[in-house]
């Protein structure tokens, strides 16, 4: 019997005495690692390790707390007559109890504000909720209200919450009804609308065979929602005057006397209220609330909607739903014209497709991956690079998928499913190995891991005081022992001397809390390390040396034995914290003629990058160059941090400034003659990198792909008149995924997409004959160009091959096709082949290291053309390198393209097949993949069409 089996059997024996009454009475059930250790005579550390493994195997439930408790899952299932499929780790005993006794939606406390349930309560809807509350609280019976907003923003739901709030605060009776009437249902029959609202008297019109009460009487004492109120005819609006002014009305056809009704009216419309409602009617509705469209709300709130809708589907089908990373990204980024309503409908439809797949293949859970996505959602991924940082902050780094499980809490569970403070070391090691195997650069790996450690530090600080960024000592000592804090403070003072830098107070606090948690883990036997963590840390030799000193000091001061592997974490901690103040940066100045040209560019760049590092100097035409030089010298002195200053200028004469500035100040400067916004963004971004030098920055900006961010000149006066979008199709023989990458490239290359209403549409088209099945006739009519590897042969539409886009004049041709003029940009200097390919691959590839990928595929190309005895052309090289790089990235994700009758194709081209396979041996070995015959078939076609 293994040690794990002994531990499990012991827990099973101890769990036998737990009763249903224990659960119902919320007794602290479960057994800690020390109890299990004593019961089995197995060391506490080993017992804890095996128990955590049993939790991962879903045989044991874990309840966090002091101490951590464990209980056999099967025992709990039997007691509650369920088969629990949720997460086996609970953050507290209260969470454990709540998961088995979920509250119904109606069990809300009488004291709970109904608006708190709305997504955006403390965010984008904070102001409109205050308006709604004010309307419902206004004495004596609230204010009539109009809710405006686009279709699908949730106007009806918002009105329903207003009704609940009115009952909550006593404006209306809690039994008061919420009655909904859609004015558009009877829009063509005004008489019928009035009958529905006010009721009618027998004989008042043809078909009125008896007296009938209207909705106003039904809503007496409550709220009447008039949806699509813009369809209410003028006479209907006028008939409401008496009701709104004096709480009286008449049924249709009545002439004597009035009826009484106390009704609060809420109107909802998508239209401009000033153009569709009577002014006299509007004056009686003093409160107007506008609900923003989904695209105007923050992504964090959209994520909450997505989580909520997936959780609703989980509860509908009683099956966990696994949602892959790119699916969530697509839902966060796609153009959801129908707002929240469409988002919910799209998720429901997707889950329905996934449920069919789940039933068909007898899967354990519903899986939602990108092949399920309709095109309008999939195209959201085109915007990923624009919002990459925001998405990473929302979703974390490189999670493969997210699992939604049945729960009364809107909780998103990631594949890692770890508590950062417990498994930080394993997480660092796993990520390092994961990205290293896939060819990520050391710089990129360190960036990812550094963010995780920074996130860990922030979580530690939040535990101390959520209202302050950094707690004071009195607050801190409620959680951390003063002895630990003082020991850490001494250790960091020594580290400061060794590293020659000063740490912030937040660093002392964060490390003190980490060491405090470490001491608890040592006691609980949870210090499980992977030796490779120190291999990672050795990349930072100075911090590594300081970390070893910190460990020694802490061991002496706290009289504890700290595992040597902790040095690895301490190294990365020292390398990450306070990084923004750790290195000097290259200064950047934009100089441009005109009253506000430079400052406009600088403002955009700073806004996009979230910095103030881009400085701007405007040069009015009536100001002398000598005066501008003096202003520039002053600014250079002001911003230089010791690494020099980089100038981006709009005229060749200004390129002489660096030499003059150096002679007058001794500060090294350099300049490049370009001020296009994309290039300035790239310059500022690179200037902030710690390893960047002024000479390297100058070379990189000079050699940047000349087609990326090209400025468009000429007569642009007609661009505002463009209504119908012009469409540029991107195609690739290897499917839509590659077409999307080409679309990414175009988005970066064309700076005028929004100005000219250009829509770049990646299409999954095998050949020109099935275009009508993918595009409507109206869309085909608006196509101005096709870019990629497949010419769709659309009449009067140009085709630009991928190689022309990269190394030819493809962008210039595309500009002319769209705006009717050629770009006036002059390319003074072309990058080397390697730099050009790497720059473009960096924008096309998702996770491969572009330099590594280019070097391997290029060697493969040289080998293959020598084996085939054919001429090396740049066009062929471009197509081969980009095709193979995308292929490798697909294969690493197990995405293999089919090829019809591949066996016959290989037999007909057997010699070429063998040579292609031979040329790819090194690619397969380095990336750890096997390139299947179907993929080889496409490479054969690439060379066979010469």
Topology:
Blueprint: H1 3-15, H2 20-24, H3 33-40, H4 44-56, E1 60-63, E2 69-72, H5 73-80, E3 89-90, H6 93-100, H7 126-137, E4 145-148, H8 155-169, E5 178-182, H9 190-198, E6 199-200, E7 212-213, H10 215-218, E8 223-227, H11 234-246, E9 248-249, E10 259-260, E11 264-269, H12 273-276, H13 279-282, E12 287-290, H14 299-317, E13 321-324, H15 325-333, H16 339-360, E14 366-368, H17 375-378, H18 388-395, E15 401-404, E16 413-414, H19 420-437, H20 442-464, H21 473-476, H22 482-499, H23 505-524, H24 532-537, H25 541-558, H26 566-576, E17 587-593, H27 597-609, E18 614-619, H28 625-639, E19 645-649, H29 657-665, E20 669-673, H30 677-687, H31 694-702, E21 726-731, H32 736-749, E22 758-762, H33 777-781, E23 783-788, E24 798-801, H34 802-807, H35 810-819, H36 833-844, H37 850-868, H38 874-892, H39 902-908, H40 910-919, H41 921-927, H42 933-944
Parallel strand pairs: 1-3, 4-11, 4-12, 5-8, 8-11, 13-14, 17-18, 17-19, 19-20, 21-22, 21-23, 23-24
Antiparallel strand pairs: 1-2, 6-7, 9-10, 13-15, 15-16
Helix pairs in contact: 1-3, 1-4, 3-4, 7-8, 14-15, 14-16, 19-20, 20-23, 20-26, 22-23, 22-25, 25-26, 27-30, 28-29, 36-37, 37-38, 37-40, 38-42, 40-42
